[in-house]
Amino acid sequence: MSHDKAQLTLPNQSPVELPIYQPTLGTDVIDINTLHNVFTYDPGFTATASCESKITFIDGEKGILLYRGYPIEQLAEQAEFLEVCYLLLHGELPTHMQKEQFNHRITIHTMVHEQISKLFQGFRRDAHPMAIMLGVVGALSAFYHDSLDIQNPQHRERAAFRLIAKMPTIAAMCYKYSIGQPFIYPQNDLNYAENFLHMMFGVPCAQEKPNAILARALDRIFTLHADHEQNASTSTVRLAGSTGANPFACISAGIAALWGPAHGGANEACLNMLREIGSVSHINDYIKRAKDKNDPFRLMGFGHRVYKNYDPRAKVMRQTCHEVLKEVGAADEPLFKLALELERIALEDEYFVERKLYPNVDFYSGITLSAIGIPSTMFTVIFALARTVGWISQWNEMIADNARIGRPRQLYTGPTQRDFVPLDQRG
Ligand code: ACO
User: Fold this and answer.
1) How far is the C-alpha of 366 from the C-alpha of 376, rounded, in Å?
2) Is any atom of ligand 1 closer than 6 Å to the C-beta of 299?
3) What is the Å distance from ligand 1's center to 219 Cα?
4) Whole-angstrom Cα distance, residue 269 to residue 290?
5) Which of 254, 351, 402, 421 would bridge 233 by S-S if both were Cys, CB 3.0 to 4.6 A apart?
6) Ligand 1 centroid to 304 CA: how many Å?
7) Which residues contact 350 (CB under 8 A, 6 or more apart)?
8) Could you give the dihedral angle defined by the CA atoms of residues 234, 236, 239 and 240, in that order, rounded to the nearest 10 degrees?
9) Given this model, what pLDDT does residue 20 score?
């Protein structure tokens, strides 16, 4: 870190010197921690670095995403999701032996406590699977609280293993519960994505080996969603974790934040939007609506707080989408053609060009997941499954760094102090 300083001059006060930190990549950061008699105002945190991190880097202008320095395109192409999990958690790609050991440790944790299956009975069958998932993941803290010392790195590692291993099991259980089918136990001779497909689509009376191409596509989707630096859900996990809370409860908080349509819920919303548009001939009407400030409609799957260029994940997702549609014999799928045309029109439209609104990862992930046979209500659940490794890696980094409790300040614009008025004198 450098010793450059910024100077802040406030009215009637002597200038204050603030250290400027130079990151290994990206934008310089001014440390305002020493400011005492003034706050900074940044709703939406557009210019606030909330922490120091070594995990993920995004260059939104150039459309670059790196996990521990490795470009997302290379990882999605060449690595398996569990290798990416190892990388995010430990900082380096695993050797052969480390990979084997890691896979084994994940595999032995895939089952959930039998009592967890009873929890499901308390939910309505038509509940949104995200509602069930956030409840069930939060409830894991009831199973692994007393044995967990978050200051102990081995205990934190075990919590990470448990979460990465159990999320596919819980996600599939959410689906099975919603359609009234029995839960399918994990099968440890399958890889991570195959196992998820097995638990999603297997039934006790007929168990087929999952399709390898679809499993590989899903594995890639997991990698693309594994981490994304300090987004809303990750910041939520860090904020909850900064109080020393149980990690399973923190991940549940992350799931809640992810659920919203402006974040992880966008792929479900995007597929619904494509279905609503229905035909290429209606695209222009919807583009018009997206540009109308009096109309709440937005082009789902377009725009991003950080990317002001093509989301690098969207490029990989687009290719994966092609492969999956070809495999399931749906290459002429009208929804995909509609999506391609919508993308083409929007990318040429002045409104979208001026605002640097490009397709984000959700634009193609919905169509891909749908072609794999996954219902749209499960899309965000799958996002949560994949993002769990990012959340827990960031949580682990924060606890290891002894971070202070997160406690933002505010610009108060409410009433000044006044005296209580008894009920009979109000009017
Ligand atoms: N459709 C139409 N206009 C849009 C869109 C869109 N999808 N996204 C942004 N804009 C416009 C805004 O109206 C605004 O216009 P203005 O400058 O004339 O007021 C301008 O572009 C800037 O947009 P902001 O809302 O300020 O951007 P912000 O960073 O706050 O929001 C967000 C980013 C939430 C992702 C937004 O682009 C959006 O709602 N997109 C659709 C939902 C979506 O796809 N979310 C997924 C994000 S990726 C992820 O979570 C994995």
Assistant:
1) 7
2) yes
3) 28
4) 14
5) 254
6) 6
7) none
8) -110
9) 97
Cβ neighbours for 382, distance < 8 A, ≥ 6 positions apart = 171, 221, 222, 225, 369, 374
State both tokens at 145.
């609280």
DSSP state of 301: T
pLDDT of residue 335: 85
H or E element that contains 70: strand 70-71
Question: How much is the pLDDT for 120?
Answer: 95
Q: Beta strand 16-21 with 5-8: parallel, antiparallel or unpaired?
A: antiparallel
Atom 40 of ligand 1: nearest residue by CA position: 303
Alpha carbon dihedral 56, 62, 63, 67, in 10-degree steps, equals -20
Residues carrying an active site annotation:
304, 362
pLDDT tens-digit readout, 98-121: 999 999 999 999 999 999 999 999
Task: Give the per-residue pLDDT at 1.
Answer: 60
3-state secondary structure of 122: coil
Collect the ranges in the chain with pLDDT lower than 70: 1-2
Q: Residue 168: which residues within 8 A CB-CB, separation 6 or more?
A: 110, 186, 192, 195, 196, 199, 385
Best residue for ligand 1 mutational test, from 304, 317, 391 (most atoms within 8 Å of Cβ): 304
Which residue has 């279905």 as its token pair? Answer: 275
Q: Which of 283, 295, 357 has most ligand 1 atoms within 8 Å of CB, for mutation?
A: 357
Task: State residue 119's pLDDT score.
Answer: 94
Neighbouring C-beta atoms of residue 118, cutoff 10 Å: 9
Residue whose tokens read 């610009």:
411
Tokens of 64: 């670059």
Distance CA 317, CA 73 (A): 10
Q: Look up residue 222 and give its two tokens.
A: 């997991």
Please tell me the total number of residues recorded for the chain in this structure.
Answer: 427
Instruction: Answer yes or no: are the C-beta atoms of 27 and 9 closer than 8 Å.
Output: no
Q: 123-180 pLDDT, tens per residue?
A: 999 999 999 999 999 999 999 877 789 999 999 999 999 999 999 999 999 999 999 9
pTM of the model: 0.91
Residue of minimum CA distance from atom 21 in ligand 1: 355
Residue 359, token pair as written in the block: 């397709």
What is the C-alpha separation between 90 and 153, in angstroms, rounded?
12
The closest of 109, 67, 64, 58 to 85, measured between CA atoms, is 67
